[in-house]
């Protein structure tokens, strides 16, 4: 009878260790890892079209509109003029629009930026590291990050001029 209980005890012990490890990991690493409204925006280090490495930290003290996009994504392309217009409107108010291109090479991104005539900062995420840390699934996805580095709101899907203006207005007032 003692031999039959030993495998059961080992299985129970294994399950306890497994569940304990999961609980500790979830609390330390924040569950699914995706930022939520009110949480600190994950930092990144990505190469910009200007040839320099950029991080989210360099925009501390400013409101950030962080837009994940690709030139192959029709809604992403359609919202670019609205992002450009809002960049021009708000940049003197301490607002930065940053476009994060997902998975494309530099030449493709440069050609696209020239074609649609945008001049807000563009960084490239060819390895999709920022995509993973932000939990991006559909594109476009835009994070509105306040001057304290907290995610104020998240918009999934295409933005229009009015929605962008309203969201940025909220960031500036805080």
Tell me what the structure shows.
The chain has 174 residues and is α/β, with parallel strands linked by helices. Helices cover 43% and strands 21% of the residues. The chain is built from 5 helices and 7 strands. The protein has helices at 2-29, 74-90, 106-116, 129-134, 161-173; strands at residues 45-48, 53-55, 63-69, 95-102, 122-125, 141-145, 151-156. It has a 7-stranded mixed β-sheet with strand order 2-1-5-4-3-6-7. Helix 2 (74-90) crosses helix 5. The protein is elongated and about 75 Å long.
Could you report the average pLDDT, rounded to the nearest whole number? 88
Query: Which blocks of ≥5 consecutive residues have pLDDT under 50?
Result: 26-31
- Total E-strand runs: 7
Helices, by number, come to 5
- N-to-C order of helices and strands: HEEEHEHEHEEH
CA distance, first residue to last residue: 68 Å
- How much of the residues is beta strand, in percent? 15-25%
Morphology call = elongated
Structural class: alpha/beta
Strand order of the largest sheet: 2-1-5-4-3-6-7
Q: Nearest-angstrom radius of gyration?
A: 21 Å
Into which percent range does the helicity of residues fall? 40-55%
Biggest sheet details: 7 strands, mixed
Structural topology:
Blueprint: H1 2-29, E1 45-48, E2 53-55, E3 63-69, H2 74-90, E4 95-102, H3 106-116, E5 122-125, H4 129-134, E6 141-145, E7 151-156, H5 161-173
Q: Can you give keywords for this protein?
A:
about 170 residues, alpha/beta, seven-stranded mixed sheet, 7 strands, about 20% strand
Short note summarizing the structure:
The protein is α/β, with parallel strands linked by helices and 174 residues long. It is built from 5 helices and 7 strands.
């Amino acid at each position: 009878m003692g031999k039959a209980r030993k495998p059961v005890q080992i299985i129970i012990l294994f399950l306890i260790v497994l569940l304990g490890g999961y609980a500790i990991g979830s609390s330390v690493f924040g569950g699914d890892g995706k930022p939520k409204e009110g949480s600190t925006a994950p930092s990144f280090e990505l190469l910009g079209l200007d040839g320099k490495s950029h991080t989210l930290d360099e925009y501390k003290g400013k409101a950030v509109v962080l837009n994940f996009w690709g030139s192959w994504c029709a809604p992403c392309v359609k919202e670019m003029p609205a992002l450009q217009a809002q960049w021009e409107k708000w940049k003197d108010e301490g607002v930065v629009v940053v476009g994060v291109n997902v998975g494309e090479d530099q030449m493709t991104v440069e050609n696209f930026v020239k074609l649609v005539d945008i001049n807000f900062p563009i960084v490239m995420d060819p390895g999709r590291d920022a995509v993973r840390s932000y939990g991006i699934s559909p594109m476009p996805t835009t994070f509105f990050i306040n001057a304290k580095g907290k995610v104020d709101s998240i918009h999934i899907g295409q933005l229009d001029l009015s929605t962008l203006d309203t969201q940025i207005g909220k960031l500036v007032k805080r």
